[in-house]
Amino acid sequence: MSLMSSIYHEKQSALLCGRHTLNSILQGPALTDVDLASIAQTLDAEEARLLSSPGGRLDPSLAGGESQNVSTSGNFSITVIERALSIYNISLERWTHPSCASIRQHPETAEAFVCHLSDHWFALRKVAGRWYNLNSLFPAPSFVGDIYLGSALTQLSAEGWSIFVVMGDVARASVAFLNAPLSSACPEGRRWTHEEAAAATRSADDAKKRGEARLAYEQALEFVDANQGRVVTLRTAVPTSGSLAPHSPAISLGGDDEDEDLARALAASREDAQPHQMSEDEQLARALAASCADR
């Protein structure tokens, strides 16, 4: 694997997404939890000195020793993120700042973005000319096309995410880490090729779709039979001639063909067993079952 074209990504551990985001920007295991905790401690000390100086007002939480820059679960403040990046002559500028007007028009000309909402951070980063979403909640780097990048950022902003443009020579700052071995201090880190990342993303997406289809199908089964005074789960056999067979073997979860056959059998069984006019609720459940069969 060529390190110049590999994509470094860290998967989520505890609430350490701040560290994952920083290392995604620097494309290597540049910073550890200890490094960031040390920065947070330094910032706390600086803030305490400032607030306890003549004319300063000491925050009660600072007097009690509570950190304003890192939570007990490991979530770091924006101040820690910025101080850590400043070590590499990198800074953050808000996406909405007037100086970022041209980047808002052409986001593909930037090198990286940092996104933050509540307790979660993640980075969008250009690597070897391609944009990737390096969210630590993802199983692998997720490719983002240049055309989609702008709409993705706009959507994130509309959803309340704070977006920061990463300013500075990001590529130069990353050079030192391209050849760095993976670190035991950042065990969640891995380097991916574009092809490996794409395959892992497809696999995760397929698994998610199967799970969503199975959930919709199970809910349709339960909904239909609950309205007849009977509740069916995926471990109950398909009714035949309007009767239940509660002791039949469990339905296999093995393949799409079985799901399709099962959904068709369910629809046929309902049609045979219910010659009366269906209510709107029953029609909705039939439509759900048919939808699952189409998948």
TrEMBL record:
Query: Which residues are the active-site ones?
Result: C17 (nucleophile), C17, H120, H120 (proton acceptor), N135
Reported EC number(s) for this entry are 3.4.19.12
* Entry's Gene Ontology BP terms: protein deubiquitination; proteolysis
Picking any one GO molecular function of the record gives: cysteine-type deubiquitinase activity
**Keyword Hydrolase part of the UniProt annotation:** yes
* Record's keyword terms, sorted: Hydrolase, Nucleus, Protease, Thiol protease, Transcription, Transcription regulation, Ubl conjugation pathway
Task: Indicate the enzyme's highest-level EC class.
Answer: hydrolase
Where would you find the membrane-spanning parts of this chain? Answer: none
Which protein is depicted? Answer: ubiquitinyl hydrolase 1
Organism equals: Pycnococcus provasolii
